[in-house]
Amino acid sequence: MIKRMIEYFDIGQICNSGQCFRMEKKDENTYSIIALDKYLEIRQEGKECTFFCQEEDFENFWKNYFDLEEDYGAYIAQADPEDIYLVNAAQFGCGIRILQQDLWEMTASFLISQQNNIQRIRRCIRNICERYGEERVNFRGEQYYTFPAPKVLAGLHEDDLRECNLGYRSKYVVRTARSIVNGEVDFKRLHRMEYEEARTELLKLYGVGKKVADCICLFGLHKLEAFPVDTHILQAAKKHYGGRFPKEKYLGFEGVMQQYVFYWEICGG
DNA sequence: CGCCAGGGGAGCT
DNA sequence: AGCTCCCCTGGC
Fold first, then answer.
1. Element (H, E) at A26
2. Which of A246, A242, A227, A239 is CA-nearest to residue A265?
3. What pTM was estimated for this model as a whole?
4. Catalytic: which of A3, A26, A210, A211?
5. Which residues pair with A39 in a beta bridge?
6. For the structural domain made of A2-92, what CATH number should be given?
7. Is residue A250 classed exposed, middle or buried when 0-12, 13-18 and 19+ CB atoms within 10 A define those classes?
8. How many whole angstroms separate alpha carbon A250 and alpha carbon A244?
9. Measured from the CB, is A21 under 7 Å from any atom of strand B?
10. Tens digit of each residue's pLDDT, chain A (269 residues)
11. Rounded distance between C-alpha atoms, residue A29 and residue A38, angstroms
């Protein structure tokens, strides 16, 4: 059990920000998270966070996962003070962090996300994990499941994933898994690429367009300059910016600002 | 029952 | 860059 006082961290906001589909609210102050083969519970009261895990896992994994070394207050402070909308949005979502999640899981998750709502995305992913992931047991003695590796999903038929409620998106996931297994796209090399190059590489995957590629860059490769444009961001841009968000003001951390706008649009107002 | 929207994408012009 | 068509579920 690890206790820390953390600034600009709100596990509830992170859970609702739509970047992680394997985080659940257990009760008012407690959330559970599954990442790789690890299970964590966090309790938060104000700035005081309790991580229910071993010191070693916290230092070697979760600290990085939650991007705790990064100063998000510094990002928020750079919001243009004349941009009242953005200043308010950043304040409203000031506890959000860009999680450092698994590249393959993010790729599959955001393939599933298209023309889909967050609740059903969660259910799709839970179905896939329960059916094709590996079983583990948490510290409470409860079972949980890992996200299946590319080679597992590559061996499936499209209809197998339709049974997981993916609908027409199942062919995207199966074909992409095969592209990774047969080496058409080298996932290990993506981590060493700059944003633009990684994005171009991801766009080669069947079912990955600009929006999904940027989500993968932001959440799976931690490229903070990636700025996914979806329907909500587009609506906000029309309402408040005459059509296009001024992301050139935020070079290098465009994606952080995107999250504040997105979170405001789905949870604010 | 029909309609429509949910963090789009492919394929074409 | 903009258009059409594609296409699955759940809510109304």
1. strand A23-27
2. A239
3. 0.97
4. A211
5. A34
6. 3.30.310.260
7. buried
8. 14
9. no
10. 999 999 999 999 999 999 999 999 999 999 999 999 999 999 999 999 999 999 999 999 999 999 999 999 999 999 999 999 999 999 999 999 999 999 999 999 999 999 998 999 999 999 999 999 999 999 999 999 999 999 999 999 999 999 999 999 999 999 999 999 999 898 999 999 999 999 999 999 999 999 999 999 999 999 999 999 999 999 999 889 988 899 999 999 999 999 999 999 999 87
11. 20
Please give residues of chain A from 184 to 203 whose alpha-adjacent beta carbon (CB) lies under 7 Å from any atom of strand B: 203
Taking domain A103-219, whether its CATH number is 1.10.10.10 is answered by: no
Question: Is A210 considered catalytic here?
Answer: no
Q: A254-267 vs A210-220: helix axis angle to the nearest 10? A: 110
Task: Using a 7 Å CB cutoff, list residues 160-199 of A near strand C.
Answer: 162, 165, 167-168
